[in-house]
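hey can u check if this looks right to u? its 276 residues, i copy pasted from the old doc so theres a chance i mangled smth
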Amino acid sequence: MDDGTIVTLRSADGSEAAVSLHGGHLLSWRPAGEREQIYTSPTTQPTAGKALRGGAPICFPQFAQRGPLAKHGFARTSRWELVTGPSVGSVSEATFQLDSTMVASGWEHPFCLVLVVKLGPAWLELHLQAANTGRQAFEFTGAIHTYFAVDDVRDANVRGLKGLRYEDSAGGGVVKEDAASEVRFDGEVDRIYLGAPAEVDLVGGGMPRRRIVQEGFGDTVVWNPGPMKATALGDMPAADWTRMVCVEAGVVGSPVTLAPGKTWRGMQRVELGPIS
């Protein structure tokens, strides 16, 4: 991957994170003394108009095919700019920006997106802000589409979603209620949990427990392509479906309506725990 597109954050304790200007896209998070926590495909490359596979893509102003634009919108395929940082200290911080003057998307609403990445001891935060810089209100859906690394997803699970309604995207979008205490991964899983809690836990898979906290995002998406869809993706090794799971902070079920001059804010924070 072209090093000229990469911004590296380093905190005082030795933690590191890397963000690509292609997509404003987190690629890596390696806490001090720990393994890589983020899955990024070893075969993906920054290509104009194409998203990177893995990391933490920014989906805006459209989640999936829920609108007239290309899947997941244009933010993840556009080149962002570094505004400030990375700072050096106990917390390292960098700010990235994408606005409507920087993209030719066919989306007619003036906007400004700001991504603030904060890196501290055993934690990482992604803060996303969307501002309406035009004169008319607009609606959007979106997500921070984070891919977490695991040794084997079949030994991992996500906890904290029991009793919630979810859209089963792998099952034709049928709305179901999750009666299980944990989400497990024996094949394709593609669920949009509606009205999700502020915290869930990603447990097992040979990795430390990861507590995933979100603010401003009303939904949580849990996704793994399974072996069949992984073969069709083309931008990651087919066998790597076992090495990743997405736990995404999303605004999907109820689009955000943003009035002129207003700003929406959302955040995803990941805190590292002991091996689970």
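Helices lie at 226-233.
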